[in-house]
Design goal:
The protein is built from eight helices and seven strands. It has helices spanning 2-13, 17-25, 34-50, 58-120, 159-176, 193-209, 221-225, 248-255, and strands at 124-130, 139-145, 152-153, 181-185, 213-217, 229-237, 240-247. The strands form three sheets. A three-stranded antiparallel beta sheet has the order 1-2-3. It has a two-stranded parallel ribbon with strand order 4-5. Strands 6-7 form a two-stranded antiparallel ribbon. β2 (139-145) and β3 (152-153) form a beta hairpin. The longest helix is centred in the middle third of the chain and has 63 residues, at 58-120. InterPro entries: P-loop_NTPase (IPR027417), RecF/RecN/SMC_N (IPR003395). Pfam families: SMC_N. Its main location: cytoplasm.
């Protein structure tokens, strides 16, 4: 029937008869054979089928994706701002760190040279930053020249000379930034009596120039004789330790 034909036309072309007539009117002068027409229809159907079903939620999905995209863009901008602030903060800390390090380095280096000459009775010593122009990344080399010797690194000195040099450096650090307590554990062991005396003289000078209390662990008689107070550990009974304290100034008065 006519109605059936019209319905079939509408289903197959998805066009109403009026619209189909309008489209065909523009091409009525062209002669199209039936096989060509069928081929064109088949091609158009394949193109239509390739499009798949219509997503009725496409607009809503697109809106959701856009909102998520906008959120990510905003978070990215926040992260970039935070990174810039963090970098600025790190640069500021590095700049302040370099300034403080160089200031402390100069103070310690000056005191180190003076104390070295005092302990050795002459000579010179200095600290040198090596391996990098940036003080925060640089290494530290100790250059020493005891009296009568060539300038060399710390590793080329004798055991006693290394000990005195290390003590000069420790005391130089304490002069720049004194601490309440300094513990020296048998630092006089490699030293002979003359150098032990120099060490004790330097220790007296440090107690006058700083408020640091020096606790010296030693077995050397000269060092013990120069201390203000001695603490010893005895074992009167097997497995039982006893702490003994002696004030040398009081002991000297009692002996006198």
């Amino acid at each position: 029937t006519v109605d059936a034909a019209l319905e079939r036309m509408r289903e197959e072309t998805e066009l109403t008869p009026d619209i189909l007539v309008q489209k065909l009117d523009g091409a009525h002068e062209q002669t199209i054979s039936v096989p060509e027409l069928e081929a064109t229809i088949a091609r158009l159907r394949r193109s239509r089928d390739a499009l798949g079903s219509v997503n009725l939620r496409a607009e809503e999905d697109a809106r959701a994706v856009q909102e998520e995209y906008d959120l990510l863009v905003s978070e990215k901008a926040d992260l970039e701002t935070a990174i810039e602030k963090l970098r600025a903060g790190i640069n500021g800390l590095n700049r302040e760190g370099r300034e403080r390090l160089l200031t402390a380095f100069e103070q310690v280096n000056t005191s180190f040279g003076t104390l070295f000459s005092h302990l050795f009775g002459g000579g010179e010593a200095r600290l040198v930053l090596v391996e990098s122009d940036d003080p925060l990344d640089a290494g530290l080399e100790i250059m020493c020249q005891p009296p009568g010797k060539k300038l060399s690194t710390l590793s080329l000195l004798s055991g006693g000379e290394q000990t005195l040099t290390a003590l000069a450096l420790i005391f130089a650090v304490f002069l720049a930034n004194p601490a309440p307590i300094c513990v020296l554990d048998e630092v006089d062991a490699p030293l002979d009596d003359a150098n032990v005396t120099r060490f004790c003289d330097m220790l007296d000078e440090m107690t006058r120039r700083t408020n640091t209390r020096f606790l010296v662990i030693t077995h050397h008689a000269v060092t013990m004789s120069r201390m203000d107070r001695l603490f010893g550990v005895t074992m009167a009974e097997q497995g039982v330790s006893q702490l003994v304290s002696v004030d040398l100034k009081v002991a000297e008065q009692l002996v006198a």
